[in-house]
Design goal:
alpha/beta, Rossmann fold, four-stranded parallel sheet, 45% helix
């Protein structure tokens, strides 16, 4: 039996242009996500001059800014960061669901990784845990996913439709 062919991303061939699109709402949590993402990118060799940060009001506005970034800046990857914390109204479901669905559609439409680091949590405590305390830093994790996807896409053949 022949060994299976496997292709996967690494964290070696990750230099490129990265744009971090950040929702300012809940900035006391989101600022830590940005720090984690930037730290992760630079630790893996991405030149700080190739990291751009775009601020939007909140998670709801992320998809439009991500779309413009993909259209105009043509980065190797986008990292979307924000925090949606459940309140006493159904607003949470609309914002979190709409943001996440749109981000996924954009990466497929533009054939460019859009790492989703938007926290959708029940409480401020959970948000803080995911922004660098007990549950790690989801900004770091999003940056790692973005870099791995950049490397993976470079390793995959490009089809005729590209």
């Amino acid at each position: 039996m022949q060994p299976l062919s496997q292709i996967e991303g690494t964290f070696v061939d990750v230099d490129g242009r990265y744009v971090i699109v950040v929702g300012r709402f809940n900035h006391h949590v989101v600022d830590s996500l940005v720090e984690g993402a930037v730290d992760s990118l630079t630790r893996h060799g991405v030149d700080v001059e190739n990291i751009h940060i775009v601020h939007v009001p909140g998670a709801w506005e992320l998809p439009l800014a991500v779309k413009r970034v993909l259209n105009v800046m043509k980065p190797d990857a986008v990292i979307a960061l924000g925090a949606v914390i459940r309140g006493g109204t159904p607003h949470f479901e609309y914002v979190a669901g709409g943001c996440n669905t749109a981000i996924n559609h954009l990466q497929l439409e533009f054939d460019t990784p859009v790492a989703n680091g938007v926290l959708t949590v029940e409480s401020i405590e959970q948000a803080i845990e995911r922004a660098g305390t007990k549950a790690g830093n989801k900004g770091t994790e999003a940056a790692m996913a973005a870099m791995e996807m950049v490397s993976l896409l470079r390793a995959l053949p490009v089809g005729d439709s590209q």
